[in-house]
From TrEMBL:
Stated name of the protein: O-fucosyltransferase family protein
Family to which the UniProt record says this protein belongs: Belongs to the glycosyltransferase GT106 family.
GO terms for MF: glycosyltransferase activity
Organism: Thlaspi arvense
Region listing for Disordered, in residue ranges: 408-445, 627-689
Statement: the UniProt record of this protein carries the keyword Transmembrane: yes
């Protein structure tokens, strides 16, 4: 019996081992199949636990919001709390007629911010002309080859159905031209207008409208990120509110982009022990350092390396085409001191640390391309432990799922060394030649693409080479990357731009974000630092940048404190003339009915908002501001100074100012006040205004 038992046990173990081998083989096969799908960028595979690269590091895992320090760093701007969005028509607003003057077909060129700035203009122009709008064509996607066939042109970035439904009471919209007009367009038999940036209503009514009535169709080419002037006459104010309805309500990203943007935002704000609103707040930072912007404004010498050559080559190209009117060689130091160059990431980090943000503050780097790549961001990483971007908060397969099913192109040939036979053949040909042969022209140096966001090239000629298939596809992907950054930046607790102008001198990605934040939540903290004053302050400590004294820190805090409100007032004069969406106030805002008298002068006199919010909004308005008004009087008498930020203020181990919330924190702050308090009078002045 014992022998039979041993045989049975051995047989059973053999079967178990065989079953294990079979299961292992099946597991390997499944993994190989999934890997193949992922390589082709068509992965639909998902797992319950998402693994991404960011691992947050905090000095104190506990984070509370009931402290004066928190209100100073993250709290709302009380002076504009009564300001609320209101883009609804304020008078008689007729529906679009069933019979229009014809069709308007639009081709929009440029990047993300140019597309987003152009679409509201196109809708307003269509209503002005009493025309039927064909869904605009986005050139960055139609010119790209190999991108997903699931999403084309407008639908690659935005939700077509939502867009059409949202503006149905303003403009008639169709997806395509009728067959006869579509054929005429392919034959280039329809009239076309290449409209300039900020064209006037007079231009459309006296030049475009007669042609539209005659031919029943016109094509508008929008190359510069806007086709209607920013400021309109008083009698056309409803068209401004139409722009707001399009930009802030109708333009919704397509489902896949919106879902990934929401995931990135959730992972960002849930870094604390619990989800928002009790999780940790974060700062969104847009460097604004694109090659075009640096070239346009003459900021090449900020880098002092090969990047300078890349920028100067681009500036020469822009001068040749009339985009830049100045000289090729510009003193970048003078441009920087005049506030015409972007703030470097290192400089922004110093400003934020001086203002009181601790080393474990979460900073999200937005805005797409950062010229110079991750190397430019190294000083910012050295000052803040939790510097992240969309790549830190998403996985490759999630991005691939957002791109859709894409064809695989092998346009990058792998360079292999020549064989021995080829070398011998070349040597024999050289020896048999009787006289030297002319050499072929040297090829242009190749382009280089870096996944961190930098691309650049230096060519042997003045002309830039044509984009490859991979580069055209990447340009389309950049639209989706910036869409994610846009959503995160609008929802951020704090936003700070490094620059707010693009490569044509027009408002950039950062300007649109600040305009959206002003419309959606005017009291959300948005820094608009004066770059000229900032450059002067930074020059004072250029030789000892990481050992600033109390006086300098107080000056920085005054500068940033003023930039929140005074920068907003200044942008109404400076930015609005270029882009309405960068400052959609007062046309698209209202004041709540129970606002305090102390805030009325700023909102009404400086911002020009006099329209009272509808009565149905009063309940929402009161609920939103109840908690903030509870502590308003207390804040006016508090010196909300972060005492930990003084002297050598870049160390990781900070005093109790960064440990918000418990009894130990209160005692630590009290001890710091006894040792020495940095008095910031601007905090008190700002509270008393």
């Amino acid at each position: 019996m014992k022998g039979e038992g041993k045989v049975f046990l051995k047989t059973r173990m053999k079967w178990i081992g065989l079953l294990g081998l079979v299961l292992s083989a099946l597991s390997l096969l499944v993994h190989f199949l999934l890997a193949g799908f992922t390589d082709d960028s068509i992965s639909d595979y998902s797992i319950p636990v998402t693994i991404f690269s960011w691992r947050p590091v905090f000095d104190n895992p506990r984070f509370t919001r009931q402290t004066p320090l928190y209100r100073r760093l993250w709290g709302p701007t009380r002076h504009v709390e009564p300001l609320f969005p209101d883009a609804n028509p304020r008078g008689y607003h007729s529906d679009p007629p069933a019979r229009t003057n014809g069709f308007v077909f639009v081709r929009i060129q440029g990047g993300f911010h140019e597309i987003r700035n152009s679409i509201p203009d196109v809708v307003a122009v269509s209503r002005l002309l009493n025309a039927t709008l064909v869904i605009p064509e986005i050139q960055s996607t139609t010119s790209s080859k190999g991108i997903s066939s699931q999403f084309k042109s407008f639908a690659y970035l935005y939700n077509e159905e939502h867009f059409m439904a949202s503006i149905a009471k303003d403009v008639r919209v169709v997806k395509t031209l009728p067959k006869n007009l579509k054929w005429a367009r392919r034959k280039k038999q329809i009239p076309s207008f290449k409209v300039s940036y900020g064209s006037s209503p007079y231009y459309y009514l006296h030049h475009v409208l007669p042609v539209l009535i005659k031919h029943s169709v016109v094509e508008l080419v929008v190359p510069n990120g806007g086709c209607l002037q920013a400021t309109l006459p008083r009698d056309l104010e409803e068209y401004q509110r139409l722009r707001c309805r399009v930009a802030f309500h109708a333009l919704q990203f397509r489902k896949e982009v919106q879902e990934l943007s929401t995931k990135v935002l959730q992972r960002l704000v849930s870094s604390g022990p619990v989800l928002r609103p009790l999780g940790r707040p974060f700062i969104a930072y847009d460097p604004g350092m694109t090659r075009e912007a640096l070239a346009y404004h003459g900021c090449a010498e900020l880098f002092q390396d090969v990047h300078t050559e890349l920028i100067q080559h681009k500036r020469a190209w822009m001068i040749k085409r009339g985009i830049v009117k100045g000289k090729l060689s510009v003193d970048s130091a003078e441009q920087r001191l005049a506030g015409l160059c972007p703030l470097m990431p290192e400089e922004v980090g110093i400003l934020l640390r001086a203002y009181g943000y601790s080393w474990d503050t979460i900073i999200y780097v937005a805005g797409g391309e950062v010229f110079g790549g991750q190397r430019t961001l190294i000083p910012l990483h050295g000052m803040f432990e939790n510097v992240v971007d969309r790549t830190s908060l998403s996985t490759g397969w999630e991005l691939a799922r957002m791109y859709g099913r894409e064809a695989k192109h092998k346009d990058i040939k792998q360079m292999t060394p020549p064989s021995v036979e080829e070398d011998t053949k070349q040597d024999s040909l050289k020896s048999t030649r009787q006289r030297p042969q002319p050499l072929p022209p040297p090829p242009a140096r190749p382009k280089y693409y870096n996944i961190e966001g930098w691309w650049g090239w230096v060519a042997e000629s003045d002309n830039e080479p044509e984009n490859t298939v991979i580069e055209l596809r990447t340009n389309a992907h950049k639209l989706l990357w910036e869409a994610i950054d846009y959503v995160v930046s609008v929802e951020a607790d704090v936003f700070i731009p490094g620059f707010d102008r693009d490569g044509k001198g027009h408002p950039s990605f950062a300007s649109l974000v600040m305009g959206h934040r002003l419309y959606q939540s005017a009291s959300a903290k948005t820094f608009r630092p004066d770059r000229k004053q900032t450059a002067m302050l930074l020059e004072e400590i250029r030789d000892h940048m990481y050992e600033a004294n109390h006086t300098w820190i107080a000056s920085v805090r005054k500068l940033l404190k003023r930039s929140i409100l005074e920068g907003l007032i200044e942008s109404s004069k400076r930015s609005k003339g270029f882009s309405f969406l960068s400052h959609p106030v007062p046309e698209c805002s209202c004041i709540k009915r129970d606002h305090r008298v102390s805030n009325a002068s700023i909102i009404e006199a400086d911002l020009g908002v006099t329209h009272r919010c509808p009565q149905w909004k009063d309940g929402v308005v009161i609920e939103r501001s109840k908690d903030n008004n509870k502590n308003a009087e207390k804040e006016e008498d508090l010196d909300e100074e972060d005492l930990s930020s003084s002297g050598l203020f870049f160390g990781h181990k900070e005093s109790g100012g960064s440990s918000n919330g418990n009894n130990e924190t209160v005692n630590s702050e009290a001890n710091n006040k006894e040792e020495g308090q940095l008095e910031d009078q601007e905090e008190l002045e700002g509270a008393e205004r």
